[in-house]
Amino acid sequence: MNQDRFEKEVNVNRKGFDKARKKAEKIVSEMTPYEKISQLLYTSAAIERLGIKEYNWWNEAAHGVARADTATVFPQAIGMAATFDPELIYEVGCAVSDEARAKYNKNVQFGDRGIYKGLTFWAPNINIFRDGRWGRGQETFGEDPYLTSRMGVSYVKGIQGDGEYLKAAACAKHFAVHSGPEYTRHVCDTRASMKDMWETYLPAFEACVECGVAGVMGAYNRTNGEPCCAHSYLMEEILFGKWGFQGYFVSDCGAISDIANGHHCTETAEEAAALALKKGCDLNCGNTYEKLIDAYEHDLITNEDLTKAAVRLYTIRALLGEFEEHRPYSDIPYSKVNCKEHRELNLKTARQSAVLLKNDNGFLPLNDRYKRIAVIGPNANSVRALEGNYNGRSPEYITVADGIRRVFKDAEISVATGSALVSTRGSDGEELLSGALAAASEADAVVLCLGLDSSIEGEEMPYEAEGFYRGDRTTSYLPRCQIKLAEAVCDICENVVVLVTCGSAADPGDVVSKKAKAVLHLWYPGALGGLAAAEILHGDCSPSGRLPITFYKGDAVLPDISDYSMDDRTYAYSEAEPLYPFGFGLSYTDVEYKKATAVSDDADTLTLGVTLKNAGKYDVCEKVQVYAHFTDSRTETPKYRLCSVTAVTLAAGEEKTVTVKADKKFIKAVLYSGERVSPDGEITLYIGGHQPDRLSEKLCKNGCLSIKP
Question: Among 171, 484, 546, 635, which is least packed by CB within 10 angstroms?
């Protein structure tokens, strides 16, 4: 997509807002207080006398329309972040909203207005993946506030469209300062300084509000003492005040009950409901807002409080075209669901999401030089390892084993499981090991499929095992049983490629890291992820993904996961040498950065020109990154701060000069007060295919260009 067109489309103003607001005010004015209360629960009741149909607000679309049967299952959000390509994620959002409308049109036709059938999607999750052990980190766009902002805005605008009506309604979640641990989220108080709030935790939310996101979801936890769904500072002062948010605010599911029962900020559920409503929470995912009837009768809330919330909700329903005689987007046919165009986009996204972490002496691509390939590991034939969580259901899944059979047509393919997915008290899957070793012993090369899946890594789960606690991880090492399998396979076959499917960082252990010829991290790559992986292994395309989080060594000493200070966290402030750094990823070709210049400078953006040359034999989608580095500043600043990402396609041998836009907001320093100011020291911008840190330059064998803005 043309960059100028992309910038125009993702910054369009919502033309129909005023019209929708007036329609909402008229509709709500005809409701009684009790009817208004019925509209503030996610299961909004029908009001027959006004001709209003029931509406269920709860729907999900983290990486495709979720939980409602057939849909295109794109790579999980963390995989989309690894593409480092905001334009591509905008296209994904457009495809998701096409399918959303297509499914909604049929749902209405057949009278199905139940859960997961509406057009209000509680996505994207733009929390910061500040700790790689958080089980829900897979739903986010990584650890960096700039990357999260860009990916979040792109996905929101793709979901919502650019017409007078919303194609679907996106919702930025979970506001705010929320990223684990899962097992304390209903009771914990996350403490964050003003500097950390405004430098790290809030920028992506601010960006999504600026671009017109329809909804914001509050988090379960308290932040600095107040529950996030009834927060004076976050909601009243910042969201509705400073930022001027005009959309709707929804609680996370059950979070208003937590105000009384988990956080003990009120004595009763009735008081919790009244407090949340007065602070600006319009919609309750849960049933605590049933208590608003008592709150109204006991004068804890007013009719005006109810009207304010109902009007905001009905403005969104009006923007979706629900009350129009000719419903917008009603011509999008059901054939759009998982259509050929969307499958091709899905495959493209999966290819770009894969991150090549190691490739000794150019071992990959395999091409057709090996005639016997063993595909081994607990995720070799796993559909669940493709899906991630908050997923739809694809009509077709291509696992890694399936993909290799399709692509390596002249090779003899054997498949073995080798071990359990995770070590438990009962078994490591020892009975599977000998079969895997037999396959490896007769193979010319082994594709070793390790990792996790959403049965053990995810949202507030009851699961506990070695290395895992209720959805979170306690280490970045892969499960012991998988490391044991990998070490045994590496002892038998010298040509081993490791593929990892999981939603977070993964350390396969020292023996495997040293002996494996290549490591490719796939995340949860979507329904066609196995085909994308096979094509990369074969050499049909060059890998181009970059790490959206830092990969730390399994034995690294990390801060407590419940500590929300950004000290010693992420690439911006961590002092530990990582296993692999943020922004890192190899390819099959060498891209030379030959020249960088400042092109233009305005209030918000610094435009740079950079000349690139693809000096290799493979076409590539290069991920140009710009980092700000601050020196001699009296204000504490990150070591580096990403401020620009641009995907540039280069044919083999091609040289191209492109412009990239650096966001000045991220070239500023944040004071302890939270104020963003021009730093008092010197700024250097580094432009390259990776972060300008020592390890990245060692792994990539090339440096970044520098420029003084």
Answer: 635
